[in-house]
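All the exercises in this workshop are built on plain-text protein records. A record pairs a protein's sequence with a compact description of its fold. Backbone structure tokens are a discrete shorthand for how the chain folds in space. Once this layout is familiar, the rest of the handout is easier to follow. As an example, a complete record with its sequence and its structure tokens follows.
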Amino acid sequence: MHTSTPMTAFWRLSLVTVLAVYLLIFVGGVVRASGSGMGCPDWPTCFGRLIPPTQESELPSDYHERYVGYGDTTFNPLKTWTEYLNRLLGASIGLLILGTLLRSLPLRKRDPVIFRLALLTFILVGFQGWLGSRVVASELKPTLISAHMIVALIIVSLLIFMTTRARRATTHPLDIRGLPKAWHRVIAIALLMTLVQVSMGTQIREAVDGITNQSFITERSIWREHFPIIFYIHRSFSSIILMTNLWLVFHLMRSLGQGHPLKKPAMALASLVIIAILTGVSLDRLGFPAMVQPFHLLLANLIFGCQFFLWLTTRHALKETPKGL
């Protein structure tokens, strides 16, 4: 196996960055589910400070008047520090992505695609930071929150693409000749289905925001009575997603040789889909418990990432397979 020090260094850092972005997606879900999005009513500071206070007595007595127009300015240390730590994590990931861009510089001649995508990702992270400030300024407008989530999904997709591309540059092509020809079409369809499902989930979350903000219904157990029809489509569509992904995993496990590198991500995909459906059922049947929501969101993003990785890897392996074999 041929290894390249610059390529290997880039791969390791990009892999860490992918994991960190998934952590940020989870923490962002916690912020939203716990209602901590306005824990810091201003941006980029928090109550006008670089490091927020831990108790209300540390704030000026007129802080409510200073932040008129910023929504609910009541100081809640738990919500404030939840949002503040979310911002710190976001800033840290910005540094990691800057690091991946710097690590890609030595690869400009060997693989200019990696450098261009690293640069694009860095630009998108800057845009994501600006979009986050707009989310706070709009007092958590649901459409802006959804846009923030979509940009995060684009960023993690670019990172997975770069990580996969860097890894395959230092390893031998995988043998996937045992897979049926239809498998490659079905994985592409599964990716599209996941995007549709995530989109519907985002719309349901926006509906929840409308119910709580406009109808003032805060009792989670009765939210379901006010959901639009898309909630029931989203719930039923999960069965189709389950069967599609199990078909993909079944053929990966049956057709590839023992110890094949793609078997572990295949099992991970099956596990993620099943757990995601179980968390969805718990949301539906247990009155939408707050802390289940970020896990459900994280699982949906992990499913897409796993599918995307399998699609990229098998697509490359298919191109590298000698004709006539």
Observations:
- The chain has a mean pLDDT of 84.
- The longest helix spans residues 182-214.
- The radius of gyration is 22 Å.
- Residues 10 and 166 are 7 Å apart (CA to CA).
